[in-house]
Design goal:
This protein is mostly helical and 600 residues long. 62% of the residues lie in helices and 2% in strands. The chain is built from 25 helices and 3 strands.
Length: 600
């Protein structure tokens, strides 16, 4: 149920909104031949070209994806945040010259997305001091490490480039410590219980020489001659031991000292200066909706009640004689629902994917070309992540994967494996992300764009679609699907509760234990994720899926017997990710087009 890792990291970073912006706004050859571009279209193309070039230069994720040379590690300093914000403001200034009535429908979507994301980016600067860069999901450390783990050696000169990047790593870690020190002076400190995850997370990377993840083993250096390879590896050991390792040790030492002593027991953004305003900003960015935390909290409570009623119906259908709470306990503890090996988890996911593949053509006009599959998450990361995440195809790895957590098998219930894999791969994340990237009719910007409520809302809608496809034949799998939905509904309650309504984490944990199948360990890490790691990110799942179903209902009512589920899905996926209000306008346009077509 987790996001692609880079989306999780970037949704928490204050630069989230500009990481995905920028594009060339292309016309199709037919459009170019039939009519000249309007002045507004020309301006939009210029703006979008500038933005795309900026993003391609600045985004480490994009440079890794396209196999471009990387010269710098992530920059989390305030001057760099100002630099990014100034660029976003320049985009807004240029967009003012455009008359939207002169744009085509697709151009207007490009215009609105650029304006939406740029405004959020500009606003983010005032909350710079509230972004904490060491929590497992939100930390830029993982993106920095990916630079080294995906680095390809094609010639001798690559060894020198890798070494130069590694020598910059201690400064990167020092910049993180500097920010923590600045926040410490403002009493913006990671809550005490989150530090129990942060310290082991950072300590994972404190290893000597050839045991370090920064060390490059022989199999990655096959194109390098033996003498040069040996010299390079010796240099690596020296830099790792004398520079990299000490920098990480100093960071952990700082956190363990006065920082930890003064860490608050309370969780949530409400306790920090401007914390509530920051949370409302994150709510808007992650949901793309104008809903208050109080409204979202009530929506969550309403849907928890509905999910409980549905689960109770299934309990009765199965013939379970105990109460609903006893049924939940049965689902959480009975050995039949738990894997014996990590491989069994992967095999179960694969089996469900094979069943889904037989149904796809009846519900979709297009399928992604990129293959997909499952494999286990790096075991070293499993302790700091509750579940796993979807990893999109890249140049170096053209296959999309769901990386599943294979640890603590007694906590890995397979009850919701079916619903989870439909969410993560097909027709969920892999479908919308791979189709978006492969759609050459879209400008580059929109091929790379990502909005939390759209991506997670679609994935949840797609998971429910399995029921309509005739899957979920096992009643317990259907239980799992409703329990997934319950999981998302509770997020609306506890995320807003802890970050805005001053709930202690103990209250959130109690609420989650009363309604979910997750183990105490999973609830422990999830409640910290919502309250201290990436607040508001988890709101996009349920709220986004509610909107997806509302849009489908609207289209069905408008088109009646002309409704085609395949065309509706193509309308949702065909123009890529966008904020929900823009998607709503796009679907209105789709309805008008379909009605006009039916009258011909």
């Amino acid at each position: 149920m987790e996001l692609n890792k880079r989306r999780i990291i970037l949704s928490a970073c204050l630069a989230i909104c500009i990481i995905f912006l920028g594009t060339a706004c292309k016309k199709t050859p037919q459009e170019s031949e039939e009519q000249p571009l309007s002045r507004s279209s020309e301006i939009l193309k210029e703006v979008a070209d500038d933005y795309w070039n900026f993003m391609l230069e600045e985004s480490i994720y994009l440079r890794i994806k396209f196999g471009l040379k990387i010269e710098e590690l992530p920059d989390i300093t305030f001057p760099y945040a100002k630099y990014q914000t100034a660029f976003a403001q320049s985009i807004l200034d240029k967009l003012k010259e455009i008359k939207i009535e002169e744009l085509s429908h697709e151009e207007s979507i490009t215009f609105e997305i650029l304006k939406w994301d740029s405004r959020n980016s500009v606003e983010s600067l005032k909350f710079y001091s509230l972004y904490i860069p060491v929590t497992p999901y939100a930390s830029p450390i993982q993106m920095a490490h990916r630079i080294f783990t995906t680095f390809e050696f094609k010639e001798k000169g690559d060894c020198g480039h890798y070494l130069n990047l590694l020598k910059k790593y201690p400064l990167f870690i020092e910049s993180i410590q500097t920010k923590l020190e600045e926040q410490f002076r403002k009493s913006i400190i990671v809550p005490r219980e989150e530090l129990d995850l942060v310290i082991p997370f950072l300590s994972l990377f404190i290893k000597e020489g050839s045991q370090s993840q920064f060390y490059v083993k022989d199999e990655r250096l096959e194109v390098i001659d033996d003498p040069d390879r040996n010299e390079f590896q010796q240099d690596l050991v020296r830099v790792i031991n004398s520079e990299v390792k000490p920098a990480l040790e100093n960071l952990v030492k700082f956190i363990k000292a006065d920082y930890r002593k003064k860490a608050p027991d309370a969780v949530g953004l409400w306790q920090y200066p401007e914390g509530r305003e920051y949370y409302k900003y994150l709510v808007r960015v992650n949901t793309t909706l104008e809903l208050s935390p109080e409204e979202i909290h009530e929506i969550g409570l309403e849907h928890v009640k509905k999910d409980n009623a549905k689960l109770d119906e299934i309990r009765k259908t199965i013939g379970f004689k105990g109460t609903l709470d006893e049924f939940r306990h049965f689902l959480k503890t009975d050995s039949r629902f738990f894997p014996k090996t990590p491989e069994e988890i992967g095999d179960t996911f694969t089996s469900h994917m094979n069943a889904m593949s037989k149904k796809i053509d009846s519900f979709f006009l297009r399928k992604p070309k990129a293959p997909y599959g499952v494999k286990r998450l790096d075991p070293e990361l499993e302790g700091s992540m509750t579940f796993g995440y979807y990893q999109a195809p890249t140049i170096s790895e053209p296959k999309g994967y769901y990386l599943y957590n294979g640890s603590n098998l007694n906590e890995r219930s397979l009850v919701w494996a079916e619903g989870l894999i439909y969410h993560e791969l097909a027709p969920g994340h892999h479908f919308h992300i791979a189709l978006q990237y492969e759609n050459e009719a879209l400008p580059e910007f929109r091929r790379e764009n990502s909005h939390n409520a759209y991506t997670e809302g679609w994935a949840e809608y797609a998971s429910w679609l399995g029921k309509e496809m005739g899957l979920y034949q096992d009643s317990y799998s259907l239980c799992g699907r409703y329990m997934m939905d319950m999981f998302l509904s509770t997020r609306l309650v506890v995320d807003t509760g802890m970050n805005y309504l001053e709930w202690p984490r103990s209250r959130a944990v109690k609420f989650m234990k009363a309604h979910l199948l997750e183990s105490a360990t999973q609830i422990h890490s999830e409640s910290l994720r919502y309250s201290t790691d990436i607040p508001a990110q988890a709101l996009g799942y349920k709220l986004g899926s509610i909107k997806m179903f509302e849009l489908r209902d609207k289209v069905e009512r408008a088109l009646g017997d002309k409704f085609d589920i395949r065309k509706f899905h193509d309308a949702i996926l065909g123009s890529g990710s966008m904020p929900i209000p823009i998607l709503e306008r796009h679907i209105d346009w789709f309805i008008e087009k379909e009605l006009a077509s039916s009258k011909k």
